Amino acid sequence: MGLRQNLAQFMLLVAVNALVGGTLGQERTVLPLLARQVFHLDLYTSALTYILAFGLAKAGTNYVAGTLSDRYGRKPVLITGWLIALPVPLMLILGPSWGWIVAANVILGISQGLTWSTTVVMKMDLVGPSRRGLAMGLNEAAGYLGVAATALATGYIAANYGLRPGPFLLGGAYIALGLGLSVITVRETRGHAMLEAANHTSAHARAHGELSNREIFTLTSFRDKSLSSVSQAGMVNNLNDGLAWGLFPVLFAAAGLSIEKIGILAAVYPAVWGAGQLVTGALSDKYGRKRLIVGGMLVQAVALGMVAFGTGFGFWLAAAVLLGAGTAMVYPTLLAAIGDVAHPSWRARSVGIYRLWRDGGFAVGALLAGILADAYGIPAAVAVVGLLTALSGIIVAVRMRSTDHKPAI
């Protein structure tokens, strides 16, 4: 157990998660424009149904993924996730109605729930307790750099060759490559978690080593102050990400920005988010999780305020950088905090429950942003979500215990 001892397999999983992120990135620039320009959806609530569908599907699958990976192993769940994704690019290319796009996102959400959740758990298995923040930083950096690079590439493809089919052919290539790598080269890691569990001697481990699924859900969601604080922060983080995904391209297009510039803005936010996690995950190992989570939520709130009240490509570019930086402070740190508290024997299930709440934020964000944007306009919707993000950071500051890790093996 350890990063150095498992470096080759760890870096392979980093590459696989970059492909998982790229599969999601094929939509970030193109789908909001497709809703308006091809399917002529005028209401924001209607246009954001694909994010609602994606969020609900992914959130539910995250929960199932943890249980399945504990029962059947990590690798079969990962491969299943890739197989489920196979029809998505064709549905996005050929879909004759918006219902097809929504259905494709249900399938994509299920696939992402299985693949991304499993790569998270597998990296936790491999590295053990002492480098968990670094591992999560590398995992999430790879995924969101994949999102960013693909958002930029699909913006270029769409500007030069149209909204369909070009951007989604890239997603199809990612799925084929990810499936091949997962089948041929990825190895099972559940044995590493069993080894860690056998040597886990902390008091928290003794108290909670054997829990039912219901008890783990209650502990992660409500009872444990650290786990529940992390869960609500993850949900609000993805609430504002769902807003950025669905409404930012529409806001920028309404301001007269070209598709190329919209693609740049859609890419910069996850690019800074992704690259920043190469640093923030390791920083959370050294300086603790709580201060990075609180600071990151507040930085995101400031960035959303800049989007709501500012105008122009340059100002929005600065806001996108700031939003990415705040998210980078939060994202791997939340996962590492779950790993600190949860016992290895039920860690995969606790991660799944956290990701259930976190990715449920996509659905909440799509509904809330759509309703507010239809009633008051996009800037008002962004401002409200910014306030909610600041409130979430305050809740973490007040309620979360320090989870600074002391190795228990």
Automatic annotation (TrEMBL):
Key word Repeat present: no
Topology with respect to the bilayer: Multi-pass membrane protein
CDD domains per the UniProt record, alphabetical: MFS_MdtG_SLC18_like
Keywords in alphabetical order: Cell membrane, Membrane, Transmembrane, Transmembrane helix, Transport
Spans traversing the lipid bilayer: 7-24, 44-65, 77-94, 100-121, 142-162, 168-186, 292-309, 315-335, 356-372, 378-398
InterPro entries according to UniProt: MFS, MFS_dom, MFS_trans_sf, MFS_Transporters, Sugar_transporter_CS
UniProt KW Zinc keyword: no
Pfam family, one: MFS_1
Chief location: membrane
Cellular compartment(s): Cell membrane
Residues annotated as domain Major facilitator superfamily (MFS) profile: 1-404
Protein name: MFS transporter
Species: Arthrobacter glacialis
Record lineage: Bacteria, Bacillati, Actinomycetota, Actinomycetes, Micrococcales
